[in-house]
Design goal:
The chain is of the alpha+beta class. It has helices at residues 40-49, 51-63, and strands spanning 7-12, 26-31.
Length: 66
C-alpha cells in the first residue's frame, strides 16, 4: 500500500491523557490513490505495516496539520 497516496485520512481514538503514545489512536477512514475507500482489513494492515506513519498522522491531527 502506498501510504503517500492516501487522502482524506481520518484518525480516531485520540486520548490526550495518553500523550505522547496515543495507543488507542487509529486510522478509521482513508481513500487510496485510485479513489477506493480502504476496507477495515486494509486499515488494520496499514496500522500493522506502518505504525510510525499512523503515529505521525496522529500527532499531525492534534497539532491541526491534518
Amino acid at each position: 500500500m502506498n501510504i503517500n497516496g492516501l487522502i482524506d485520512v481520518q484518525i480516531d481514538g485520540i486520548n490526550m491523557d495518553d500523550y505522547p503514545d496515543f495507543v488507542d489512536a487509529h486510522v478509521s477512514f482513508a481513500i487510496d490513490e485510485e479513489g477506493n475507500i480502504l476496507t477495515d482489513e486494509q486499515l488494520d494492515q496499514l496500522a500493522e505495516d506502518h505504525p510510525e506513519w499512523v503515529q505521525e498522522m496522529t500527532h499531525d491531527e492534534i497539532m491541526g496539520r491534518a
